[in-house]
Amino acid sequence: MSANARVAVVVRTKNRSVLLARALADIFDQTFADLTVVVVNDGGDPAPVDAIAGAYAHLPAGRLMVIHHLHSAGMEAASNAGIRASQSDYIVIHDDDDRWHPDFLLNTVQHLDAHPGVRGVTVRTEIVFEDIIAGEILQTGTQPWCSELTSITLADMMTSNRMVPISFLYRRAVHEEVGYYNEDLDAVGDWEFSLRFLSYNSIDLLSEEPLAYWCQRPSLDGDLGNSVIAAADDHQKFDRYVRDHHLRHEIRQGGLGSLLYLAEMAGAQEAEAAHARRTAELLIDKVDRLAQRMEALEESVQRRTSLTDLAKRPGRFLALIRDVLQGRR
């Protein structure tokens, strides 16, 4: 096994040694073994990374490489550095906090080997919720992600991201067609790359059980948090940036004509949706007020029923009146 392995696994990390240690154990536990791993430490403390990598010093040369960036260059620059430092038929980005089913590489490599015209393949993904307490990773829950998908299409991807890097294996040759990851993006770089990828090629979906686990820690921020949660504002900002970039390119090619009509239609739909939301809010308010009136009516009926029942039993009714007059009730 050498740097010329079938698969290059690029691991992006920064000051998350507890997660990096798990990621490398996860990768080397794969049933498919013809791989090389490139760890890109993007501006984090190098000592813990070297210590973790040292545990794999017994592996043949080229099985595990470490690149240290003196200063953080961003996730997309880390991806590009790892890709360019390796040689392989296939590439996958394995962020240091995510995990695989042991057969992820086996199944995805076999699929691309069996379908030479397919440029990339993704798998069903499960979100795994975690917390880190006293240096220990604790799983707190799971949920399927995009389980309704039956295929990966450019139309769907234009709406929002439909796959995460941990789930996606693709052919290295694709970079000759679509370029590398966009290092100008501080967020949504994997989505933007997928848009360019799908502009030229299709991506197959293995739709059986989940083989990729997208791990999230909603209660944590900083280095141990997830960028999609801890940096939600950046995701929204760069989502807009990407859309404007591609819109400007299209306008330069074909002008504003049809796009102006589409924008008008989208604006009308948005206005209708806003009106529907306001109508729903008013309806909910009316239902709440009706429920309150029903509760008040029910209490009134219960009180009257109780008094009627007392009136049928004069002795008990007189005792109640006596207690009220004496201040007992």
Walk me through what this model shows.
The structure is a single chain. α1 runs parallel beside α2. This protein has 2 domains: 7-253, Spore Coat Polysaccharide Biosynthesis Protein SpsA, Chain A; 259-325. It has 11 helices and 11 strands. The strands form 2 sheets. The protein has a 7-stranded mixed sheet, sandwiched between helices. It has 329 residues and is of the alpha/beta class. The model has no long low-confidence stretch (mean pLDDT 87).
What count of domains describes the coordinates? Answer: 2
Name of the CATH class of the largest domain: Alpha Beta
| Integer average pLDDT | 87
What is the string of helix and strand elements? Answer: EHEHEHEEHEEEHEHHEEHHHH
Main β-sheet, in a few words? Answer: 7 strands, mixed
The CATH architecture category of the largest domain equals Alpha-Beta Complex
Helix content: 40-55%
Distance between the termini: 89 Å
Q: List segments where confidence is low: pLDDT < 50 over at least 5 consecutive residues.
A: none
